[in-house]
Specification:
The complex is a heterodimer of chains A (222) and B (249). Chain A has one domain. Helices cover 86% and strands 0% of the residues of chain A. Chain A is built from nine helices and no strands. Chain A starts with a helix and ends with a helix. Chain B has one domain. The two termini of chain B are 36 Å apart. Chain B is 79% helix and 0% strand. Chain B is mainly alpha-helical and 249 residues long. The chains are: A mainly alpha (222), B mainly alpha (249). Chains A and B meet through α8 and α9 of A and α4 and α5 of B.
């Protein structure tokens, strides 16, 4: 079972490495969206510092969502997905592997980039670590929940816009606790509560989301 | 014994839905007339909020219905998944527009009430925000359903989405509530439950009558909507043909 999981992850990572520009597009989208905010609201340093966590988090949400359409679509179009659904290993496992690969490709780079963007907004020290930490816990949840939306909208016209309508409301708790943790730690309050809640959401999503995505894939591929 | 599964067949449910829709419709109109009369003429003027509080008599039932309909919708979606009954998913999809409408009414009347009372059309209060998110969930459900051409797939996909949504509703609700208390910068506070205790008995009765009016309206409307859906989906079957030609003759 674990070898099947590893096989799926390695396959998706190899595919992503062959199309490196796709990965970079997501990262640059993230950076551009974050950079737009100071241009929109003005260069007031105090205001930007206050906004920083929220802005970075919203941009991470959008960047993660943007890459969702690729999660199953390519495999669906060339028929690989149908073959994957026929293998003896449970579909939940395969979905989990694909989600894990998706997170490594599109979530992890955001985590690694976030301190740099935080610095631009005047965050420092603990806040930067907290920003990275919340993104590290939060972005897997985004991939897990997003997989449900991606599976439901597979092969539909206008799937990309539709997926945003489906998954963004579900992302709200992660956004609230993620950005809230950074704000709380900046204000000198402990962020333990936020982090615990994010951990709970991650565990819950890890258990339920692959199962729901697998059910959604079965509905979409018939 | 009353056999519930008898009515899971569209053919036997169609006439029942027609009778129920008429019954609930009449009850709803009657309650609405009574409820509106009570809310405008019988219920006393509030000592703090004046006449403006009367908007509560439509606002509160609409807000309750918006949440309740989502739960009912998810239950129908779950039934559709478990027993694979066509009718359950038809019910789920015919409830969605009514639920979205009540959500919108709750938000709209809330804004109209908020302007004179709070001095703002909109505040980022926990309940307002979660009601707005509920509207997004309804819209997502309907958008997904209309984007899929095959009705079977549409029903199952949107049913799954409704179930995912209903698991998330409490998480979203509490996260929004905590978010609001953590970001306590707003000077306006909604005292939850505060209205309940200060309400006179006649106000409670009016509110109840209006709630049942809205409830019965939702039942009547979604049942008549499901009748159209049944006819559309089952248009190839013999019973629909005899029903339609029989009506003409």
């Amino acid at each position: 079972m674990l070898s099947a999981l590893r096989c799926i992850v390695m396959r998706d990572l190899t595919l992503a490495m062959r199309h490196r520009s796709d990965v970079l597009t997501t990262v640059f989208f993230f950076i551009i969206v974050v950079s737009l905010f100071p241009l929109g609201v003005g260069p007031d340093a105090a205001l930007l510092k206050e906004m920083a966590a929220g802005v970075v988090w919203v941009a991470a949400l959008l960047a993660s969502m943007l890459s969702l359409t690729r999660l199953f679509a390519d495999d669906y179009n060339d028929g690989t997905l149908e073959q994957l659904m026929l293998v003896p290993q449970p579909l939940v496992l395969i979905v989990l592997g694909k989600v894990l690969a998706h997170w490594i490709i599109s979530g992890l780079p955001l985590v690694l980039m976030s301190p740099l963007l935080g610095l631009q907004f005047g965050l420092e020290g603990d806040e930067l670590i907290m920003l990275m930490l919340t993104l590290l816990i939060g972005t897997p949840v985004l991939s897990l929940l997003g997989a449900i939306g991606a599976a439901l909208t597979l092969g539909l016209r206008g799937g990309g816009v539709l997926v945003s309508l489906l998954v963004l409301p579900l992302y709200i708790p992660v956004l609230i606790f993620g950005a809230g943790a950074v704000t709380a730690s900046a204000a000198g309050m402990g962020a333990d509560g936020h982090l615990s809640l994010m951990g709970a959401i991650l565990l819950l999503a890890l258990v339920l989301a692959p199962w729901a995505s697998a059910a959604a894939l079965r509905i979409s591929v018939e | 014994m009353f056999n519930l599964f008898k009515y899971s067949s569209p053919a036997s449910f169609y006439p029942l839905a027609g009778r129920l829709a008429v019954g609930f419709g009449i009850a709803s109109v009657m309650l609405l007339v009574i409820g509106l009369y009570m809310s405008f003429f019988v219920a006393p003027t509030d000592y703090k909020q004046g006449e403006g509080y009367r908007i509560m008599f439509i606002h509160v039932p609409a807000a309750w219905m918006s949440m309740w309909i989502y739960v009912v919708m998810a239950c129908f979606a779950a039934a559709g998944m478990i027993w694979n009954t066509r009718l359950s998913s038809m019910m789920a999809s015919s409830l969605a527009p009514t639920g979205a409408m009540f959500t919108f009414i709750a938000l709209w009347t809330g804004a109209l009430w908020g302007k004179p009372m709070w001095g703002a059309w909109w505040v980022w209060d926990a309940r307002l925000t979660s009601e707005l998110i509920l509207l997004f969930l309804y819209v997502g459900f309907m958008a997904l359903e209309s984007a899929i051409d095959d009705p079977r797939r549409a029903a199952r996909a949107s049913g799954l989405l409704a179930l995912v949504g209903v698991v998330n509703v409490p998480i979203i609700y509490y996260s929004v509530q905590w978010w609001n208390t953590l970001h306590q910068g707003s000077s306006i506070k909604v005292v939850s439950g505060g209205i309940e205790t200060s309400m006179s008995e006649i106000m409670v009765w009016t509110l109840l009558v209006m709630t049942f009016a809205c409830w019965f309206y939702a039942v009547a409307v979604s049942l008549s909507r499901v009748r159209s859906t049944i006819l559309e989906r089952e248009s190839g079957t013999a019973w629909v043909k005899t029903l339609l030609t029989g009506d003409k003759a």
